[in-house]
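Team,

Forwarding the record for the chain on the shared tracking sheet. I've put the sequence and predicted structure together so nobody has to dig through attachments.
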Amino acid sequence: MIPQPVVGRAGRARPVPIRTDLSGRSAAPTSPAIPAARTGQAARTRHAAETGHAAQAGHTAPPVRALLRRYRNAGEPLSCEPVAQGLLNRGYRLFTTHGTYFLKHHLDGDHQLIARQHRATQRLQALGVPVAPPVESADGDTVAVIEGRCYALHPWVEGRHRDGSQLTAAESRRLGGLLGRVHTCLERVMRRDSAPPLHEGPYHENRYDESLDQGIFDRSSHDSPDPADTFELIDELLALARGRTPGDPFDALAEHRLVERRALLEQHAHRRPAPGAEPATGWVHGDFHPLNLLYRGGEPAAIVDWDRLGVQPRAEEAVRAAAIFFVRPTGELELPKVRAYARAYRRAAGAAASELAAAVHRVWWERLNDFWVLRWRYQLDDRRADPLFAAVSALAVWWTREYEAVCEAFSD
């Protein structure tokens, strides 16, 4: 994960963390295959077994030996390899004399919140949802607090990430059905937990986002972005893009897209979703995209990373997930697969077509108002997300042009 800027009411940026390697909504599948999951393909360093630590630039290695002593049969450490790095959490592949584990360091350090996420996955697993709950320690806890830091030990799940281009129509239906089942099962298992304040939305301002995506607007009250704020941001970004010397093709594309988007917003400003127009709220995963779903063969093996578990308009998660899985590199959605996915989701979640149509409108509006890649480049001088801009910016334009077709695909 790397810091993503969010824009406040005055269009100023501040960093929040997100996960890398997504495009489009957060994961436009621009490569023929997403790398194998949790196989340590990211840069990593093995330490000698006797150290019991993992080396990773920029932070302290986890206290592996002290942690393993809290578990009955976890074994002795052999090696510990970093597989993900971010501001919300860090992940390691931990090899011991008794097996392989995924060690997660929760940087937010909220023991109670982490434990609730763990309870949810345990209960979901009991209902047959493919998840990977943490291992319980000898005292029955799932969160190990060592020197003020929170860790969790999960079973290692072998599998691969798959984007929508790799899914058949039948697999797209299963994906929609899976998310629908997640939502209905969450409603059951979370009844035993007192409901929190509305969770800040998975793609909105004032929250820490685990997805590499746009659409980060304040949704603590489910308000939609104000185009007046977006116009101010467009002016600021245009000045920054035009002021770069020498400019490059990216700057030219950015200027084109900013001018284009301003015209679209002027044309469609009257379509801003009204307060109270959001679909029904419910418990959601909060970050459902290809990098948080592991496949073994053609079947889902585990839904991972439940850090954004919370209460939000559930149909909006379904729409965002589809916009991640089924976006093409050119910024178009594979509507036949979206239709199969959405029908299965509605059936499994018991959601009405009107609920999906309302979600489509709100998510479209969010995308129309978002420029997170350009905020990275021009406000934070961070170009790591530049390769995603073509698909991200094209999707908003294509979605506006094909609005009716997209609505029909989700609600037919």
